[in-house]
Amino acid sequence: MKDIIVYLDRNSNEPLYVQLYKYIREEIKSNKLKNGTKLPSIRYLANYLNVSKITVDNAYQQLLVEGYIESRERSGMYVQQIEEILSTPLEFNEMCISTTPFLNHIKYDFHYGTIDSENFDFKIWRKLTSQALISSQEKLLQCGDPQGELDFREEIVNYLRSSRGVSCSSSQVIITSGTLNSLQLLCELIDCDNKSIALENPGWSNSKFVFEKNNFKIIPTPLDKDGICLKALKEISPKFVYITPSHQFPSGVVMPVTRRQNLLKWANRTNAYIIEDDYDSEFRYIGIPIPSLQGLDNNNRVIYLGTFSKSLAPSLRTSYMVLPKKLLDKYKENMSMYEQPTSRLNQKTIQLFMSNGYWERHIQKMRKVYRRKYNILIESIEYHLNSNARLIDGKAGLHILLEIRNGMSEDMIIQKTEMAGVKIYPTSKYWITPSNLAYPVFLIGFGGLGENQIKDGIKLLGDILNNNNNNKL
Known about the structure:
Elements: H1 16-29, H2 42-49, H3 53-66, E1 69-72, E2 76-79, E3 108-109, H4 122-136, H5 150-163, E4 173-176, H6 179-189, E5 196-201, H7 205-213, E6 217-224, E7 227-228, H8 230-236, E8 240-243, H9 257-270, E9 273-277, H10 293-296, E10 302-307, E11 319-322, H11 325-334, H12 344-355, H13 358-384, E12 389-392, E13 399-404, H14 410-420, E14 422-423, E15 425-426, E16 441-445, H15 451-471
Parallel strand pairs: 3-14, 5-6, 5-8, 8-9, 9-10
Antiparallel strand pairs: 1-2, 4-11, 6-7, 10-11, 12-13, 13-16, 15-16
Helix pairs in contact: 1-3, 2-3, 3-14, 4-12, 5-12, 6-7, 13-15, 14-15
């Protein structure tokens, strides 16, 4: 075993583990550390350099990922023979820690925006697309109704009435190319002196971006166990509220009916509008879906947003919004020059998918698929993570939250998991104001992973987190 003598600049902006990684890498490349040389143990080198074991472990993990060293079971770390050295070494800094060095090594990506593609019936989709082309080929070449295809909007109305309790007519439905497109159209519709909007804190950061670009006054509004805090809304009196009540993003809270009713009373009393984003209400794993806020609204105070991104496919770029009659009049008066933002062929295909009964069968099938994945995820977390993590479970949608309690910072968890080939997503980006959380919380999506990938990915995540906990002993 060879001692490593290196000067670590503790006043540098470059992390200590990056300095150590670079030093060992250069020693190997210059053949000063020869093939087969055993490196000091993590504990020994940490004590020798007066740094934490995490610092040494992170440096070693990066060298492992890049192939400079290898880990031999029950023996330690050894220098590996380098057949070919890149002429330009990888520049490794804090800005690229969580992305560049590791992207090609991510084996288990728990992204929350992906869906299951293996259970999509491409044969049916091809048949219906061909049918749409044959039956409507001349119409599909024209621009069409700015609000979207009438037959498609009528199918959406029927579906929303039966599954979400939404009360509307096809004339109130506007087809858009995504939820952000829906929000942008809303911002252009809204013409008032008081453009203040309450946003859930934490909440979907993309919505904040759209409202800020349209000169809204953003009011961060806290959550409680039932969703957005009604007491806070009464104190700030915004003219608009954007919420995700059926599965709050990212916390997973499902707003109960009582809170919904009280929220509607507040909106009616203050003449405020509620923007209800019902982005993944199809997937609920315990109990029955709670009716939409819009379906409980008797005073036209709710703007309802829906999408096919989670239930069908994000690539279709097909969403919709249901406007209250007052805003619908403004839309027809001021936005009739807009053209359809979504492919007429996609609209026609989805309409046939719904009218022929395939949609209902698809949703029922995917509920079973996602429920099984959800159960596997929960069981794997409970088995492999033990006391190092706390599950924050909303029992709906395509993601859960995981609070990690093993003493590591959010950045360190990201670095260690990505170096090992696991990608999980911090929730810190969704806070408008700094959070006061005692432990870092991560968003774990499961829609796009297979069952074995979920099991293996969580096992590896547990190994990483448990290993850090053991290192502290």
